């Protein structure tokens, strides 16, 4: 969910659609009841960098942005066409405000894992009450019933801080973890070992071909990675404010030529973004070549990126990592990024 500021026309359209709430309110105020719980839970992690009221306001704007997009008739029609096998009307793909009784209210919508029509789930975008307590399973079952025509298998929920699944319903599984750091703080830490063994260069014309080949090789070597990682499109990488190829230095490859393919070490990229109440850079890719994997170059590669990025917004760098991807999570931790929470999938019992 990207933060956005709205023109009068879009603002009026959202107010008209969100008729249950007071239409005289500002857009952020309309959505505040659905983000207060998350904002309070994130405060212990983000308050060192961002004032809690600012986080809450941004979360409300992010939710308003998502609501505007995912209740737009043209967007819903496009999704319905893509998921035509479900045979559901366009309107059912819109975000909805749902009353869960004593569990409060949520804003939720139908999603599809990897855009696969066979893998529907319900995503919670905002909730008026903390759902992580004893009543969570009841709330999950009601949501799955509401979206029953799609036959979703689980509900996706963000839980700040907590990684342990103790106390959550049986069958709950982790999804993505969110790891964050402030560029100034990250740069103040000692450089990791092997920092001098790698250098960054702007992505070349052949960079994307190298990247695709490295992705496919990784999927062959470790098939489960195909479930954890998505290949970034060429235009997605080209739009990044920071996108570099990594090359081994002469200290590792004496006498090498500057374009020697054997010295190619991988690709790393980040772009300006706003999410979860933060502004700064979102790290969208760090992929090491097969020839250098497992040699301790990951933290050095990421530290080079950190030192090359021009601070933006709050000066934060964050990214999501599949909870099962322990090597990438360790790399992020070694450069100083903090795990502040993650998403989980809760199934029906």
What can you see in these coordinates?
The chain is of the alpha+beta class. It has 2 domains: 8-176, no CATH class; 180-340, Aminopeptidase (3-Layer(aba) Sandwich), CATH 3.40.630. The chain has 12 helices and 11 strands. The protein has an 11-stranded mixed beta sheet with strand order 1-2-3-4-11-5-10-9-8-7-6, with helices on both faces. Strand 3, helix 6 (136-146) and strand 4 form a beta-alpha-beta unit. Helix 3 (36-46) packs across helix 4.
Which descriptors apply to this entry?
single chain, 349 residues, alpha+beta, Aminopeptidase, 12 helices, disordered N terminus
Write the topology of this structure.
Layout: H1 8-17, H2 27-31, H3 36-46, H4 52-70, H5 73-82, E1 96-99, E2 105-112, E3 120-127, H6 136-146, E4 154-160, E5 173-182, H7 183-188, E6 198-202, H8 207-221, H9 225-228, H10 234-238, E7 242-248, E8 264-275, E9 278-288, H11 298-308, E10 316-322, H12 326-334, E11 338-347
Parallel strand pairs: 3-4, 9-10
Antiparallel strand pairs: 1-2, 2-3, 4-11, 5-10, 5-11, 6-7, 7-8, 8-9
Instruction: Kindly name the structural category.
Output: alpha+beta
Order of helices and strands: HHHHHEEEHEEHEHHHEEEHEHE
Quaternary organisation of the protein chains: single chain
Residue windows where pLDDT falls under 50 for at least 5 positions: 1-25
Q: Which geometry do the CA atoms define?
A: globular
Average pLDDT rating:
88
Strand content: 25-35%
Strand order of the largest sheet: 1-2-3-4-11-5-10-9-8-7-6
What percent of the residues sit in helical stretches (DSSP H or I)? 25-40%
Largest sheet: 11 strands, mixed
DSSP helix count?
Answer: 12
> How many domains in all?
2
Overall number of strands: 11
Indicate the radius of gyration in whole angstroms.
22 Å
Distance between the termini: 29 Å
């Amino acid at each position: 969910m990207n933060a956005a500021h709205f023109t009068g026309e879009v603002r009026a359209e959202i107010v008209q659609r969100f008729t249950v709430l007071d239409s005289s309110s500002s857009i952020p105020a309309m959505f505040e009841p659905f983000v207060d719980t998350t904002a309070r839970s994130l405060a212990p992690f983000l308050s060192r960098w961002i004032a809690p009221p600012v986080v809450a306001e941004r979360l409300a704007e992010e939710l308003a942005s998502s609501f505007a997009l995912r209740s737009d008739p043209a967007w819903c029609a496009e999704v319905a066409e893509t998921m035509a096998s479900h045979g559901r009307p366009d309107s059912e793909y819109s975000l909805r405000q749902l009353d869960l009784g004593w569990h409060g209210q949520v804003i939720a919508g139908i999603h599809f894992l990897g855009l696969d029509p066979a893998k529907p789930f319900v995503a919670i975008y905002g909730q008026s009450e903390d759902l992580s307590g004893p009543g969570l399973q009841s709330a999950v079952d009601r949501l799955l019933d509401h979206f029953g025509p799609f036959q979703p298998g689980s509900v996706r929920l963000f839980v700040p801080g907590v990684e342990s699944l103790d106390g959550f319903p049986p069958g709950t599984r982790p999804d993505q973890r969110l790891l964050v750091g402030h560029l100034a703080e990250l740069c103040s830490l000692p450089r990791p070992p092997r920092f001098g063994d790698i250098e960054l260069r702007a992505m070349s014309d052949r960079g994307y071909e190298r990247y695709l080949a490295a992705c496919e090789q990784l999927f062959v070597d470790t098939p489960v990675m195909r479930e954890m990682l998505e290949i970034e499109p060429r235009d997605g990488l080209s739009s990044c404010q920071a996108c570099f190829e990594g090359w081994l230095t002469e200290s590792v490859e004496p006498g090498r030529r500057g374009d020697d393919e054997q010295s190619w070490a991988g690709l790393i990229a980040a772009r300006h973004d706003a999410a979860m109440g933060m502004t700064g850079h979102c790290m969208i890719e760090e992929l090491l070549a097969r020839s250098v994997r497992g040699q301790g170059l990951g933290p050095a590669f990421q530290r080079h990126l950190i030192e090359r990025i021009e601070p933006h917004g709050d000066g934060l760098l964050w990214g999501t990592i599949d909870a099962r991807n322990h090597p990438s999570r360790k790399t992020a931790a070694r450069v100083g990024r903090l795990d502040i929470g993650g998403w989980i999938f809760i199934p029906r019992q």
